[in-house]
Design brief:
- The complex is a heterodimer.
- By secondary structure, chain A is an all-beta fold.
- Chain A has strands at about 5, 10-15, 20-25, 30-40, 40-50, 55, 65-70, 75-80, 90-95, 105, 110.
- In chain A, the strands form 2 sheets. In chain A, strands 2, 4, 5, 6, 9, 10 and 11 form a 7-stranded mixed β-sheet that branches. Chain A has a 4-stranded antiparallel β-sheet with strand order 1-3-8-7, with no helix packed on it.
- In chain A, strand 5 and strand 6 (about 55) form a beta hairpin.
- The radius of gyration of chain A is 13 Å and the shape is globular.
- Chain A starts with a strand and ends with a strand.
- Chain B contains no helices and 11 strands.
- Helices cover about 0% and strands about 55% of the residues of chain B.
- Chain B has strands at about 5, 10-15, 20-25, 30-40, 45-50, 55-60, 65-70, 75-80, 85-95, 100, 105-110.
- In chain B, the strands form 2 sheets. In chain B, strands 2, 4, 5, 9, 10 and 11 form a 6-stranded mixed β-sheet that branches. Chain B has a 5-stranded antiparallel β-sheet with strand order 1-3-8-7-6, with no helix packed on it.
- The chains are: A mainly beta, B mainly beta.
- The interface of A and B includes residues 31, 91 and 93 of A.
Chain lengths: ~110, ~110
Amino acid sequence: DAGVIQSPRHEVTEMGQEVTLRCKPISGHDYLFWYRQTMMRGLELLIYFNNNVPIDDSGMPEDRFSAKMPNASFSTLKIQPSEPRDSAVYFCASSFDSTGELFFGEGSRLTVL
Amino acid sequence: AQSVTQLGSHVSVSEGALVLLRCNYSSSVPPYLFWYVQYPNQGLQLLLKYTTGATLVKGINGFEAEFKKSETSFHLTKPSAHMSDAAEYFCAVSTGTYKYIFGTGTRLKVLA
């Protein structure tokens, strides 16, 4: 299996632009998570889906952030408009069993100038 | 509410020495406990996990951890450090509801 696939690996954009991050989970995994990692705040859960349905989005920082999962093999995290404080590494992870082991992608490093 | 505390944001050991990374947790229900490792520019990978049963858990790359309920600890150890162990290590707690709480991480440096 190819693992969790994220794109782009690196994104540099200017403040105010729209950013879309993409994730393909491992086939057969029913749960998908979006995390943000920064030096100041560590790993933060933004949102997670079960069977393509958002279950908990309480970690989404504000309305500028939105996430979708139109099917079992694809999810997007969108930031519009982007701000410099959104600069971070965004990880997608998926899981399949009740003990909750997470399988992480390699992350998307976002820099907002 | 759950929480995780990792003592020491940076730990240095000599190659061949014992590795000990500390993790204490707080949970109102029996926890699931995890250690993940993150190498530079990569995502997190599971080292080991405790759910139920045996309190001494063995993981990959020679690491192990012991769940001590009385001490609310889940420290990670390895008898002999290798240069390839240099990475950042995260302890995490969950109650099985998929809401993980991650610690702030410990960066392990291995000295030649």
